[in-house]
Sequence to fold (657 residues):
Amino acid sequence: MNQQIIKLSGAEEQLKALLLAQGKDEAATQFAANGLPTRRIEAYHYTDLKTLLRDVPSALAQANDGNKAARSEFAGTARVEIVNGELAGDFDLEGVSVATSANAASGDDSVVLISEALVGDTVEIKVSGELDQVLHIDRIIDGDAAINADKVTVEVADGCKVTLLETFNGSDAAHLGLATTEISLGEGAQVVHLQLDGNSNETRHFANNRYSLAADSLLRTFVQHTETPLSRTVVTADFNGGGAHADFAGLNLLAGKQHADITLNVNHLVPNTTSTEMFKNVVHDGAKAVFQGKIVVAKDAQKTDAQMMSQGLILSERGEVLVKPELEIFADDVICAHGATCGELDENSLFYLMSRGIPRKEAKAMLIRAFLAEMFEPIEVEAVVKQLEARVDSWLDDREEA
Amino acid sequence: MTTPILEIKDLHVKVEEEDKEILKGVNLTLPAGEVHAIMGRNGSGKSTLSYVLAGKDGYEVTQGEILFNGKDLLEMEADERAAAGLFLAFQYPIEIPGVATMTFLKAALNAQRKSRGEEELKIPEFMKMVKEASAKLEIKQDMLKRPLNVGFSGGEKKRAEILQMALMQPSLCVLDETDSGLDIDALKIVSEGVNHLRAANRSMLVITHYQRLLNYIVPDRVHVFSDGRIVESGDRELALELESKGYSSFDGHAA
Fold:
């Protein structure tokens, strides 16, 4: 245990004060001992929060009617709205129950620690049927700039099936969002979990997504960062039962001075489980995208098959894509692979399109859309694909220099 | 006398950031309605000429000019050249995963129309055009459903190039080694496709190693290309002479 007293930054002092004000003395002490993670902590090597998170709002988001915040609307979905950490409105859908309970979880990682400590009530969702309708959970931060910690747990019973669409939205202010999502899949459960970030372009967004997979369950996930100046999503999955399969995907689509980090930890803990990982990073201007993907195959986890791919597209001289794939394999009868590519748009492809009369800017846009197409293709919720494509279009439109 | 479709005057070209000159004074006049062949050995600069005509980045014109329908071609970007009626059939058409062939064809045709101030094609009209043109080239509909050139055989790629050419109705067609990688049957289909496009207001520049292609696409003039320039020009007989004597009798280099 490191007993050295570190000098806290202004932001760290503020976070500590907030923890104390919430009566979280233990968490405050633990946080003060470590501060925000720096590059010396391996998991944060490319996302040094002491440097990147220099100012934080002073107050927690207070319960309100959420009127100032933008919403994501998806026709035909069943909607659960969480405003400033509190469940808003009634919810009635067969096969789904929604309740709240006090959160008591903690963590060693400083971001997890403050996220868990500042959560008031956890929103607990239980799925006990085969849902045809997409369950849309809109997590909203409303009001003036504030720190908002919210938590959603979803328990999908044995043999049950659900598509969860989570969106992050908020009022136009420099919030700090700390979102925790835990999804447990029962035996043979099938879950699609899509997480779209639609926060204001001043909000700093941190998400922790944790999954546990029982035998024969099937999971498909997608996370995306496009809007906020600083974001980090940590995806952690534990395979606890044989025959389970998961596909993990994610996208950082960045410009300006944005910094976004997707960190993935996939733990194959038992025999006969499989996974694929597909992550893409597109950067323009001086943006920085980080992908860290770690696949662990435990000693007993024979017959694991895991295929990880990360691809980067750098559209400017100053843009950076930082990729760290890792395989930790303790079993001997497994198939694991990882690949990483990174580059500019292909000059020959660009010339080919232009030689057919397509102007440079449009040709580049076509190639960028093509780069992303294979990632959107498996997302079966048409409204989500449309929104993602629209986001890509507006992102492309915003790029002045073609 | 009417303006030639293409006039190349004393064209000198080097690769950007390199000192090596590749084209060393090319002179060529291509009148409307004529088909000219450029024959030369590997590395003589034939493909560079085709890329410079189409506007590929990475080349620097150090001297000379190119007039396309009387206008300065070198002032235009690649897409503007296409919209103005220049078409390059690639020796190696580029595979572009993630771009559906039909989407690409529609985007290209509409971009050209837009730059000429014409209205966008209506979808049924576009579909009909593609269907008719592809039938002539024996292109199956399922090929058009695939991503652009992805998984196409060599012959399919070349037929797809000619399909694009037929749809775009250019005034200048530059065919870069269109015969390479084609078997005799495919060569016939492609050549028929090209011959079908011969017209009084359209010119073609056919670049090839072999005289074989010229049995099918019969040129009005043949130019022998060597070491970055045209060393001999003549009628169709020149191609036959070249075939029997070899390039060395024209450029003095060993074969």
Observations:
- Chain A touches chain B through 24 residues (CB under 8 Å).
